[in-house]
Amino acid sequence: MGYRVVDTDSVEPTSDRPCECRKLSGPGGLDTVAINRFRAGPGEQLPLAYHYHETQREAFYVLDGTLAVETPDETYEVPADDLFVVDPESPQRAYNPAEADGAVTVLAIGAPPADGDAVAYDPDDE
Asked: Which InterPro entries does the entry mention (predicted)?
C-alpha cells in the first residue's frame, strides 16, 4: 500500500504559464494523468494559447471564482463547484475575464498526460 499527502502550496509554480500553475502529478507520484492547480487573476489565461489536444481529455473543476472557456461556438462561464470537460480535438482557451472581481482557482485534470500533445488553434482560420 502507498499513500501520499501533497501540500500543494509547497509545490513551486512553473514559470512557463501566464498565471500561477502548480504541477501536482510529479509530487503525487502520478504518471498516467496530469493534475495542475491554476490560480489566475483578472485578465490572465490558464493555457499558453488557444489550443486543442490530439489525445488528451481535460477536466477543469472550478474551486473558486468563475472560469471563462472560449470555444469556436461559444464562451462558457463555469462557476465554482462546476466541472467543464473538453474532449480531444476540441479547441478551447480557459481564462479569467479582465472584468472579474478576483482570482479564479481551478484544478485541471488531463489524461493521458499531454507531453507535446497540444496543437495551437487560431479561430480566424475557420
From this structure: Cupin_2, RmlC-like_jellyroll, RmlC_Cupin_sf
